[in-house]
Amino acid sequence: MKNRENMRRAPGLMICRRPVRNAVFVLSCVGAFILGCLLTMMSVDPMSCDIYQCTEKIKHTAPEDTNSWLGSWDRYGKVAEKSVFLIIVILSAPGNIEQRNVMRQTWLSEEKSDTHHFFVIGTSSLSPDVNSSLQVEQKRFGDLLLLHNIVDSYQALTKKLLASFVYVHYSIRFRFLLKCDDDTYIQLPQLHKELKNVPYKQRLYWGFFDGRATPKKSGPWKEEDYILCDRYLPYALGGGYVVSSDVATFVATNSKYLKIYKNEDISLGTWLAPLDLHRVHDPRFDTEYKSRGCNNKYIVTHKQSTIHMREKFSSLKTTNLLCRDQFQVRKSYLYNWNVPPSQCCVRNNTSVP
């Protein structure tokens, strides 16, 4: 009787065991497949590391840190605690104290509480006298961004710009950034008003653009490493331009990946080339390598001596006009974004400021 009962139960037991055996068989196959893949990967990969080791190596892999100078700066005061609407970055040379003082006495004197500026200066290899003078100036005004690892020169302009972007990104909350030189005059109240009403609060790249320029093969503007194109990618000229904070953030957070070209404005235009930005060409930015003249509509005027700055400031105070006499020494243009960059900028309209 027991044998008969066992025989009756046996088929049922066999049926119950089959799913278990099948599951074990499937899992074994999957395990063998994964193991084979891992062994294959290890045989192909010269590193011969396991998953954990490879993951750790990837996590610690970074581009060569050739930009170690980016974090070496010196600031006085408590600017880092401020939150401002507009930050102004002014590239200056160590010995240009007269230019800085005239800017402080003229257009920078109209700076509002929600605006802050600083002059960017490389201080590496300076003589003791020049360095001492800068320290005295810093203690008096507190508006210098001193870059200890940068030897100040024309060739260092792009490094100074990039270090400035990194500094403001990590130290100051702001909405817009204006970059200019220490020979630039700004109608600051007008610029401030324009920015309050600008339709683009993000992705803004605003200035006087060029797309025709070819890389220089000689002289101080020589660019030996510009191999991307036979013309510079469209860029806002460096006498003065504005970017929104998100654009500055993009540059700062990707600083280690950015190619340093000799010209800072060309470098920025190249870095931003693939981005979907609002590129706003504005003839009221007189920011080329020499001024186009004097026009009351100009918001930004480049290549100004200290005398010109005082004259413009005095004229604005007494007549509410930038220019006592308007004049034009070279024509301007409106950028045509509907044609190739080589055809972008035709100076054929005397009515354009």
Q: CA-to-CA gap between the ends?
A: 113 Å
Derived from helix and strand composition plus strand pairing, the structural class reads alpha/beta
Looking at the structure, the CATH topology of the domain at 71-276 is Spore Coat Polysaccharide Biosynthesis Protein SpsA, Chain A
Tell me the strand order in the biggest sheet.
1-4-3-2-5-10-7-11
CATH architecture of the domain at 71-276: Alpha-Beta Complex
* Largest sheet, strands/sense/barrel: 8 strands, mixed
What is the CATH top level name of the domain at 71-276?
Alpha Beta
Count of helical regions: 9
Alpha carbon gyration radius: 31 Å
Identify low-pLDDT runs.
40-65, 76-80
Looking at the structure, what is the overall shape? globular
Taken in chain order, the helices and strands follow as HHEEHEHEHEEHEEEEHHEEEEHE
Give an account of the 3D structure.
- By secondary structure, this protein is α/β, with parallel strands linked by helices.
- The chain has a domain at 71-276: Spore Coat Polysaccharide Biosynthesis Protein SpsA, Chain A, CATH 3.90.550.
- The protein has 9 helices and 15 strands.
- The protein has helices at 2-44, 51-60, 97-105, 128-141, 157-171, 188-197, 245-253, 264-272, 306-319; strands at 73-74, 86-91, 115-122, 144-147, 176-181, 185-186, 204-207, 209-210, 235-236, 240-244, 278-281, 285-286, 293-294, 300-301, 327-328.
- Helix 5 (157-171) crosses helix 7 (245-253) and helix 5 crosses helix 8 (264-272).
- The longest helix is centred in the N-terminal third of the chain and has 43 residues, at 2-44.
- The termini are far apart.
- Residues 40-65 and 76-80 have low confidence and may be disordered.
- Belongs to the glycosyltransferase 31 family.
- It is found in: Golgi apparatus membrane.
- It comes from Petrolisthes manimaculis.
- Its cofactor is Mn(2+).
